[in-house]
Amino acid sequence: MTNIFDLPAVWRRALMPASFNGARFHCEANSRESGRRIVEHQFPKKELPYAEDMGRAAREFSVRGYCIVFPYDSENTLYSRDYRRARDELILQLEAEGPGTLQLPTQPSQQVVCPRYRMSEEERFGGYCTFDMTFQEFGLDPQQVPGIATAAVLAQASKALRGQVVRVLSEQPLPAPSGVINA
User: The pTM is what?
Assistant: First the structure.
């Protein structure tokens, strides 16, 4: 009999490392919220309302990430014996002015801004900190006329960037610590 672990995990091969503006972090959970902007009109002496669709609502992302000590140092600050390096790099990017690129493990990258975040550290969990981050879609400035940035052009640029990230990550594999079996 086959169980769920015997099925090919196609989605695992597509996972991307979580990062904001290049500052990487481990992603424990993420969610994306959006919908339609609906204005409901109710008229006097009418039984039925009218729901007016005003377009797509801006996307909002809620992300729970963390930085944790690693058993040895590597070139990537996320994999370091001092988790504070990755923590401080992420804080620097979260507090930087202007939009940044948010890459979540299972979603395409997005241009976003970070209106707020919460970083938590507890003494009993030494060498570990969590981030609860909220990001909002950056979008386009309505006062600037967009160029030829059509959906196809943006999709092509996104695909090229993803390919570049995958190439860079595949060139610098992390050595597995002794005694760890890859699943």
Answer: 0.69
